[in-house]
Amino acid sequence: MILAALTVAATLTAQQSIRLTSEKQGKENQVSVENVKVERTEEKILVSMDFILDSLDVPSNRYRAFTPVIRSKDGMQTKRLKTLIVSGRRQAIVFERDGIDPLYADNCDVIRFARPLSYAYSDVVERQPWHNAADVFVESDLCGCGDVMKNDQAFVTTLLPPDPYGLVMLTDVVPVPTKKERNLHGTAYITFVVDRWEMKPDYMDNRRELRKITDTLDVMVADQNVTVRQVKIHGWASPESPYEHNKMLATNRAKSLTDYVRQQYGLPASVFAPAEATPENWIGLRQAVVDMSADVLPHKQEILAIIDDQTLQPDPKEWRIKMRYPEEYRYLLREVYPGLRRSDYEISFNFSDFTLEQAKEIYKTKPYQLSLREMWDVAQTMEHYGDDYNKVMQTAVNVYPDDPVANLNLANVAIRQHDLLKAETLLDKAGNSAQADNARAVVAILRERYDDAERLLQQAQQKGLDVSKNREAVERLKN
User: Fold this and answer.
1) Residue 3 confidence (pLDDT) above 80
2) Are 428 and 455 in contact (CB under 8 A)?
3) Per-residue pLDDT tens digits for 37-74
4) Distance between CA 432 and CA 413 in Å, rounded?
5) Distances (CA, A) of 392 to 123, 371, 396, 399
6) Start-end of H helices in 292-386
7) Could you tell me how far CA 195 lies from the centroid of its own chain?
8) Among the four 111, 235, 237, 330, which has the fewest Cβ within 10 Å?
9) At 442, which helix (H) or strand (E)?
10) What is the pTM of this model?
């Protein structure tokens, strides 16, 4: 299990120079701040800036004071930060003898004025709920009188609400190693001479239909990373003619096709399963009738009733359809029955297990040969949640579209990319693990559905996952 925290410090930066004094105060008192930064963590707010004081005029017996202030949007709450006091020489002596003005005394830095002069200011305060969307000002006391009512104020920046993506925590899941056993299914429409079962590759379209099987096996046999476990062929016949005759034909035709394919390859005889057959393909016939309109087959429902009649054996069923609905029977015989005569094939095979270095190379050209765990291991060699890592997670879902772990880990990537719609779609197939519940809770948090989030977090916690981080996120964002 991998814990992936999204908690990061959020920084607001004001690159431009901000003038603190107005033109009416004259060029001798032009003060500005640069490089303003407001860094926000979960518990603290750090305010820093550079005061540019080269044009400030401070007589020897006076001082100037500058105080950053955080004020709520409604103006009802205020937090004064540390004050910067720029003192003349005589005023500094007075401070040492009599103390600093009470407005600033508890929290201030005092520097002696001299040109050129700049000061790197910083202060830290505890975060409060009302800080969200609060404004930051710098209050300028240019008379040196410690009277707030006479001070000027210059707006600096606004504290945006906390970034919810920076508060939540997601949990990826490491896939367990699994055997890479696969099955490939297909259908070939092999044509046999009437009442015969000898395999004739060049008869009708047989060469093309045979390639459906042989082209697949050619690729597998040539690939050293593939081991063919079993080839199984199942033959189907259409319902016309007596059942026992069809049984004999279907069985021998399936065996003939199996023997033909086996002879083309140097695979062990044990790879080829005994041929199987269904004498009459009533399943396919029924589905074909269901799919037809009443315009094409006027007695569609009556024919379906005969097909579904469990009291009738196959031969009486066919005879009843033929006798009662001769025109429709001839249509079925001409248009449907040929497609009922088919050979289904199933090829079971394994992919080799790969070392990490081999897997990294295989991923570039044949990622479908990797297990989900091997893909995960390849991803861990890349920058977490970088473009290459994210592509591996996407490939994992492409190869294993129904795997809960693959869908969950890609959903976590989608959340990090702020693509909540994609995340929700993936989470529909992510199963019911604690990690999946947690990811759904994170989506609910980001969509401000806090009741849903709390319910999902409770589920994840009951399944053994530590969700305290996301519970804290809910509380902070609700306030």
Assistant:
1) no
2) no
3) 888 776 888 999 999 988 888 899 999 999 999 999 88
4) 18
5) 44, 12, 6, 10
6) 300-308, 314-324, 326-335, 337-340, 356-365, 372-379
7) 56
8) 330
9) helix 434-446
10) 0.65
